[in-house]
Write a structure and sequence with these properties.
The chain has about 300 residues and is an alpha/beta fold. It has two domains: about 140 residues, Rossmann fold; about 160 residues, Rossmann fold (3-Layer(aba) Sandwich), CATH 3.40.50. It is built from twelve helices and nine strands. A five-stranded parallel beta sheet has the order 7-6-5-8-9. Helix 1 crosses helix 5, helix 1 crosses helix 12 and helix 6 packs parallel to helix 7. The N and C termini lie close together (about 10 Å). Bound molecules: phosphoric acid mono(formamide)ester and norvaline. The site of norvaline (NVA) has 9 residues, from helix 6.
């Protein structure tokens, strides 16, 4: 199986992945070596600190071998078609983890290869981030039921995956963006279908940051300009500031609100120093949880793939 976004998962899959992640977190150095004799290609078309380190360390601690390859070190899509790269890599390694500009690159790797492909961020989505975030929310809030999560800012890749993750665990989510910067319509539709399927949770889009922040259990934000985005900075600085997470906005949320950001952050833009460094911030737990969640993803995907009929 592939993990290109969270819509391939059911609620029980998320529960399983979070359980695995909790086990890996509790047993950091003495857990099962599920990647023994396995090699994992980890490809980056864009920069990364957390994803690169957490995947590399996850593979190492699971007993496997990782090959980290930057875009300019391999032929991906330039000197060689994605199809040929996918077919060749499938002869060498057991899975591909890739951070790409165009989501279609992941789809093509999955289409032409014969091994699992894991999305390490694309223009459309960032599922591994959200699995780590769900683990973090569970740690702080114990359960997802009845929790209000507010995402403020740009309706980007992180937001697109967060709305699926939130729907799958049944949270009530409000997304507040400036007009024209809403999340991907297809992801919104999929999230609403998931909410309908389980009869739990909700999703609302608004252009009002205060409506989103009001009584929130979780406040989440991300950069206003993502890697590869061609937004005009002057325009962004004109329309995005009301969506900044700052002390004033925090007053609308619940007293025990947690503040989340996938990092890297543009301090002073989407979030202020006092909030990201403040008592409500859980950003470094989120970052750490990438490691545990990614180990869980490997376990889940290899179990699922071994039971698939080939
Ligand atoms: N959150 C996240 O994916 O960070 P990196 O860009 O550092 O990998
Ligand atoms: N939305 C950000 C997330 C970085 C982890 C980006 O795509 O640049």
């Amino acid at each position: 199986m592939h993990l290109l976004d969270l819509d391939v998962l059911k609620r029980e899959d998320i529960e399983k992945i979070l359980k695995y992640a909790e086990y890996f977190k509790k047993n950091r150095y003495n857990h099962e070596k599920i990647l023994k004799d396995k090699s994992i290609a980890i490809i980056f078309e864009k920069p990364s600190t957390r994803t690169r380190m957490s995947f590399d360390i996850a593979v190492h601690e699971l007993g496997g071998h990782s090959l980290i390859m930057n875009q300019n070190e391999i032929h991906l899509g330039k000197k060689e078609s994605i199809k040929d790269t996918a077919k060749v890599m499938s002869r060498y390694v057991d899975a591909i983890v890739a951070r790409v500009y165009e989501h279609k690159t992941l789809e093509d790797l999955a289409k032409y290869g014969t091994i699992p492909v894991i999305n390490a961020l694309s223009n459309l989505s960032h599922p591994c981030q959200i699995l780590a975030d769900l683990l973090t929310i569970k740690e702080y809030k114990k359960s997802f039921k009845g929790k209000k999560i507010a995402y403020l800012g740009d309706g980007n890749n992180v937001c697109n995956s967060l709305i699926l993750g939130s729907a799958l665990v049944g949270m009530d989510m409000v997304v507040a963006t400036p007009r024209g910067y809403e999340p991907n319509a297809l992801n919104v539709l999929k999230a609403l279908e998931i909410i309908d399927e389980y009869g739990e949770g909700s999703l609302k889009l608004t252009n009002d940051p205060i409506e989103a922040a009001e009584d929130a259990d979780i406040l989440y934000t991300d950069v206003w300009i993502s890697m590869g985005d061609e937004k005009n900075l002057d325009k962004v600085l004109k329309i995005f500031p009301p969506f900044q997470i700052n002390e004033k906005l925090l007053e609308y949320a619940k007293d025990d609100v947690i503040v989340m950001h996938c990092l890297p952050a543009n301090r002073g833009m989407e979030i202020t120093d006092d909030v990201i460094d403040g008592e409500h911030s859980v950003v470094y737990d989120e970052a750490e949880n990438r490691l545990h969640a990614q180990k869980a993803v490997f376990k889940f995907i290899f179990e699922a793939s071994s039971s698939e009929v080939r």
